[in-house]
Design goal:
Order of helices and strands: HHHEEHHEE
Structural class: alpha+beta
Radius of gyration: 15 Å
Number of domains: 1
Oligomer: single chain
Distance between the termini: 31 Å
Strand order of the largest sheet: 1-2-3-4
Number of helices: 5
Largest sheet: 4 strands, mixed
Helix content: 40-55%
């Protein structure tokens, strides 16, 4: 039962991230394969920036991969807040890993459910 619940929450988070990306026209039009762009596991949320089209990579990612990665995580944080609220968690620590060519950016951070005291 616990394994099934874990699989459901992983699938739910992946679905929420992909939907959030699809609702953003700038990202949606520049990522061909959303399911290869994001892969949620029980250990981390993995993003593959190689899935952005070449023009987007050259304009936004290549000039400063780390800065773009940090901004991307801030952009996606509302999905994590909505997710922990939906599954009735008070908060959760997420590990995000972003790959682009040979580079990797990782960040670990906690998100509290809205209205949860710190």
């Amino acid at each position: 039962m616990a394994a099934r619940a874990l699989a459901y929450t992983i699938d739910l988070l992946q679905y929420k991230i992909i939907t959030y990306i699809r609702l953003n026209s700038a990202l949606n039009s520049n990522i061909t394969y959303k399911t290869r762009f994001v892969d949620v596991t029980e250990h981390a949320i993995n993003f593959n920036f190689y899935e952005f089209n070449e023009a987007y990579q050259e304009k936004f990612i290549e000039p400063d991969f780390e800065a773009y990665s940090a901004k991307f995580i801030e952009f996606i944080k509302p999905v994590f807040q909505d997710f922990i609220k939906e599954i009735h968690y008070g908060g959760y620590t997420f590990r995000v890993s972003i790959k682009f060519n040979a580079e990797r950016f990782e960040k670990v951070f906690s998100v509290l459910s809205p209205g949860n005291p710190q």
